[in-house]
């Protein structure tokens, strides 16, 4: 997602690895859910 994602990663660098991993996993799951919703809506 280009610039957005880069900025998000910069913001994450200050966290401990566990917090970062948990946050990243949560965001990836949400994105996948949104993508599934989008494709379901289009079909």
Mean pLDDT: 66
Shape: rod-shaped
Sheet/helix structural class: mainly alpha
Q: What's the total count of β strands?
A: 0
Keywords:
single chain; 2 helices; mainly alpha; 43 residues
Structure, explained:
This protein is mainly alpha-helical. The protein has a domain of 29 residues. 84% of the residues lie in helices and 0% in strands. The chain is built from two helices and no strands. It is rod-shaped.
Quick summary:
With 43 residues, this protein is mainly alpha-helical. It is 84% helix and 0% strand. It has two helices and no strands.
Task: Reconstruct the topology from this structure.
Elements: H1 3-12, H2 17-42
């Amino acid at each position: 997602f280009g610039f957005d994602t880069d900025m998000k990663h910069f913001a994450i660098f200050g966290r401990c690895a566990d917090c970062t991993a948990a946050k990243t996993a949560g965001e990836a799951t949400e994105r996948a859910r949104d993508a599934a919703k989008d494709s379901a809506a289009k079909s």
